Amino acid sequence: MKILVLGPGAREHAIVLALLAEEADHEIVCAPGNAGVAASGVETPALAFTDPAAVSAFVSERGFDLVVIGPEAPLVAGVADPLRAAGVPVFGPNQDAAQLEGSKAFAKRIMDAANVPTGRAARVTSVEDAGPVLDDFGAPYVVKADGLAAGKGVLVTSDRAAALEHVATWAPHGDVLVEEFLDGQEVSLFFFADGHNVVPLSPAQDYKRIFDGDEGPNTGGMGAYSPLPWVADDFVAEITRTVALPTVRQLEAEGTPFIGLLYCGLIVTSRGVRVIEFNARFGDPETQVVLARLESPLSQYLLAAANGVLADQPAPEFSADPAVIVVIASEGYPGDVTTGRPIAGLDAAAEVPGVHVVHAATERDAAGGWVSTGGRVLGVVARGTSFGEARDRAYAGVDAITLEGSQHRTDIAARVAE
C-alpha cells in the first residue's frame, strides 16, 4: 500500500517502524515526520499537517491508499473530513467525533449518555465559580482544562490555592472541569474503531509525572510498559463491553461515527474501573511498547477500520515478551526547556539486544550529528523475555546516550520487574 502517516513525533516514528516491519512492501511517507523517521529511510516532506486544505491537496497529488493521522491537533482541526469526503480511506476520526478528546465536557456528556463508568465532574468558567465546587468535591482536587493542552492541562493537588491558580491559568482559554479524585492504578487501553465495531489492543501503563515515585508536574509521558500482568483475565473484555463499544455506538447514534484509534484512559479503583479520559489517537509513549509487541500486520487493522470492516478481522496477536520504554527529556522539561544540545550514543543504544530508539524532537546539525529540538527528545524501547530483562535493556540503552542536562525517570516498570 501507499500510506501517508501524518505527524512529527515519536508516536509517528513508532507507527512507521511497525509498518516497515511488515512483510508487505509498503510505500510509506511521513509528513512532516522528524529526523529519526528520515533516518529510518522514509520520505519526510514538509507539510502543514494541521491544515485540512494543505493535506487534502498533498493526498490528491500523491494518490495514497491510506492516510493515518497521528496527533490530536490535526484531528481536532478536521483534517480527516475533506479526505473522507473525497473517498480516501482515513484512520482518524472526523472533527466532530474528535471532540471526544478535544473537549473533556463533550466526552463526559457522551459517557453519561452511554452509561460509561466515570467520576463526577462539574464545569466552571472562573475562579469565582470554582471555589464552591472545589469545596464540594473536596481534596485532593482534580482540575482539567477542557481543551487540548499537550498533557499539561491537568492538575491533581491537595493545595486549594494551587487548584484555583490552575483554574485562573486555563479559564481564559475555555471551560475548566473540576472532577472527582479517583485513586488506583491507571491503565491505557487502545481500540481500533470503524464507526460501529471495536478491536482491542494490549493494555499498557504510562508514567505521566516528571519525577520518580510519580512526583512533580504532569508531562506528555515519561515511560510505559506492556502488558499488565496485574489486571484480571477478563479486563480487556470488560472494558470492551462497558466502555469502548457503548462509546462508539453512542457516537454513531448521534451521527458522528468514530473511525480511528479510541484511547481509553482508565483507573482501577476499589469500586471498579472508571474512565479518566478519552483520546482520539494513539497515546505516546504507550504506542511504542504496544506496537513493539504487535505481531499482526498493523496496516491490516488501520485499513479495515478506515473501510468499516473490522468485524471481518481476527483478534490481533501480541508477543508474550514484555516491552518497556524510557523517555529521555531535555533540561527544564516540562517547563522552559533547553534545546540545541548535541546527542551522542544512539548507535550504541541500538546495539543493546532487544532495543530500538524512537525520535521525538531531534534534528541533524550541519556536520550530520544529532541535536535536541524539544522537551521529550528520545524514547528507548526494549523487549525482553521478562520485565526485568526488558527494563535492564531499556536502561542500558538510556545509559549509552549522552545529552547534556537530560532527565529521565529511573523507576519505569520497576513494580512489575520486582
TrEMBL record:
InterPro entries cross-referenced by the UniProt entry: ATP-grasp (IPR011761), ATP_grasp_subdomain_1 (IPR013815), PreATP-grasp_dom_sf (IPR016185), PRibGlycinamid_synth_ATP-grasp (IPR020561), PRibGlycinamide_synth (IPR000115), PRibGlycinamide_synth_C-dom (IPR020560), PRibGlycinamide_synth_C_sf (IPR037123), PRibGlycinamide_synth_CS (IPR020559)
Cofactor list: Mg(2+); Mn(2+)
Superkingdom to which the source organism belongs: Bacteria
Domain ATP-grasp: 108-307
Gene3D superfamilies, sorted: 3.40.50.20, ATP-grasp fold, A domain, ATP-grasp fold, B domain, Phosphoribosylglycinamide synthetase, C-terminal domain
Annotated Pfam families: GARS_A, GARS_C, GARS_N
Classification of source organism: Bacteria, Bacillati, Actinomycetota, Actinomycetes, Micrococcales
PANTHER family given in the database record: PHOSPHORIBOSYLAMINE--GLYCINE LIGASE, PHOSPHORIBOSYLAMINE--GLYCINE LIGASE, CHLOROPLASTIC
Cited SUPFAM superfamilies: Glutathione synthetase ATP-binding domain-like, PreATP-grasp domain, Rudiment single hybrid motif
Family: Belongs to the GARS family.
Glycoprotein in keyword set: no
Official protein name in the record: Phosphoribosylamine--glycine ligase
Assigned EC number: 6.3.4.13
UniProt GO molecular function: phosphoribosylamine-glycine ligase activity
Pathway: Purine metabolism; IMP biosynthesis via de novo pathway; N(1)-(5-phospho-D-ribosyl)glycinamide from 5-phospho-alpha-D-ribose 1-diphosphate: step 2/2
Keyword terms, alphabetized: ATP-binding, Ligase, Nucleotide-binding, Purine biosynthesis
Database matches in HAMAP family: GARS (MF_00138)
Catalytic activity: 5-phospho-beta-D-ribosylamine + glycine + ATP = N(1)-(5-phospho-beta-D-ribosyl)glycinamide + ADP + phosphate + H(+)
